[in-house]
From TrEMBL:
CDD domains assigned: AL_MDR
Protein's name in the database: Zinc-type alcohol dehydrogenase-like protein
Biological classification of the source: Bacteria, Pseudomonadati, Pseudomonadota, Betaproteobacteria, Burkholderiales
Pfam family for this entry, one: ADH_N
Domain Enoyl reductase (ER): 13-336
NCBIfam families per UniProt: adh_fam_1 (TIGR02817)
Sections of the chain in a coiled coil: none
Amino acid sequence: MKAVALKRYLPIANPESLLDVDLPRPTPQGRDLLVAVKAIAVNPVDTKVRAPKDKIEDTPRVLGWDAVGVVEAIGADVTGFKVGDRVFYAGDITRPGSNSEFQLVDERIVGHAPASLSVEQAAALPLTAITAWEALFERLRVPRKAASGKAPSILIIGGAGGVGSIAIQLAAKVVGLNVIATASRPESEKWVRELGAQQVIDHFDDIPAQLKEIGFGQVDYVLILNDTDKHFPAAADAIAPQGTIATIVENSGPLDVSLLKAKSAGFVWEFMFTRSMFQTPDMGEQGKLLNEIAALIDQGVIRTTLSKVLSPINAANLRQAHADLEGGRVIGKIVLKDF
């Protein structure tokens, strides 16, 4: 089968950083689905895993953690899917990724793809939707039903990226939070407002001061999607007493969590691969939430965050997508379709 893989971890400008290869087609066992991949999306995790380091792979390593495809075959223990089903998923970082014609994925972390979307539109969703959903409803513990009275507020730092684009929609359109998103350019500000952000501030300027200017001395929730080291002090300043901060971005230095003590405020991580990596008993929750996302899409409550499509799926186009992401100015999601 065709695939795009790496053998060495190189700068993306190097033509050998991602290679077109031919690999054996895998066979499903147990709860695995064998999916014929039709479209994939690229995420920051792809560039982080591929980042230069002194390591050589004995066999080509396939990256990619976002896919839409059709079930080609199933393992003996599969109960929720059949051959021919159209599915979407982010997959498992401990297994070969989605940048290949066929991929094995555990049925528990797979959803039925939205019926109303094309394969490229649907491919933009899984990883960011899982991350945003888990961050809001499981880490920050935002109530699924809006409370009476004044709507709680959330500050989403890095609102125009893939996760932010879904988090804004879920927060504003599904649970009715007052969403303040950060964006630094006119085009990204326009994007986050269209998705449902009521207020927009610039993450390159003084965040607490800007919040005060728009009438928010403090917010009930903060979701950090960009540069935890830089933004944690501002988040700690902005969070309300007994509020919670969540981040998806690893820190490079110590964070002063003592800033949260007087407020009895919480700090929590979201990593969407935790369930599959540790085979947690609730691993199937990811499949369920993907089905809920598909329903919200098909009902017109939220929309895809696709912003750019490249075709076909090959090493040259994947190198371009990685380079675009590393440039730090991508709005929404980049998707590749068709081998």
